[in-house]
Amino acid sequence: MTDRFHHPDDRETRSAARVRALEALLIEKGIITSRTVDTVLDVFETKMGPFNGARIVAHAWVDPAFKTRLIEDAPAAIAEMTDLPEGMAGAEGEHMRAVANGEGVHNLVICTLCSCYPWPVLGLPPYWYKDPTFRSRAAREPRAVLKEFGLTVPDSTEVKVWDSSAQIRWFVVPERPAGTEGMSESELAALVTPESMMGVAVAASP
């Protein structure tokens, strides 16, 4: 992660302390139970997360017709994949849209207003995605920001920035890496990172 969006080393510790205090207060007031947080965490560890997005991207890589449908109507295309968990169109997934990287174009997803994010395919957003510096600079100078992430986009490639909101939550279908011919979908999915589906990186090489 670039130092440009670095946070104090104790940020996680301080945030965790606040969360524990808030959880204790909500339990005391009877708003939630001691199992509520564990249930939510389990959802994002086992059901909703970047592992879903990786499977969707891998399927798009091997099935051009599916990729076309995914770009045209992401929720409908995702619903075709019966091996995904229930609730893909639920919280934070109601209005998902996909854009594909390809020859001459690279896509970057941001949220200038807050931290809107397609949870079912990417999980919870990282800290830096919510950082005001990232959100503002990525809109103004996306090439410079991508370079700070270690991704240099050629001048001949257009960089398109997509602003997620409560109405539309974007994710990127990265380009399929070279040398992956003959790989299975599960092997391909292992090359897809959350960062590549946000556009701040490319898919990993085999």
TrEMBL record:
Enzyme class at the top of the EC tree: lyase
Organism: Azospirillum palustre
Residues that coordinate or bind Fe(3+): 111, 114-116
Taxonomic superkingdom: Bacteria
Protein's recorded name: nitrile hydratase
Span of domain Nitrile hydratase alpha/Thiocyanate hydrolase gamma: 15-201
Molecular function terms from GO: nitrile hydratase activity; transition metal ion binding
Family recorded in the similarity comment: Belongs to the nitrile hydratase subunit alpha family.
Reactions the enzyme catalyzes: an aliphatic primary amide = an aliphatic nitrile + H2O
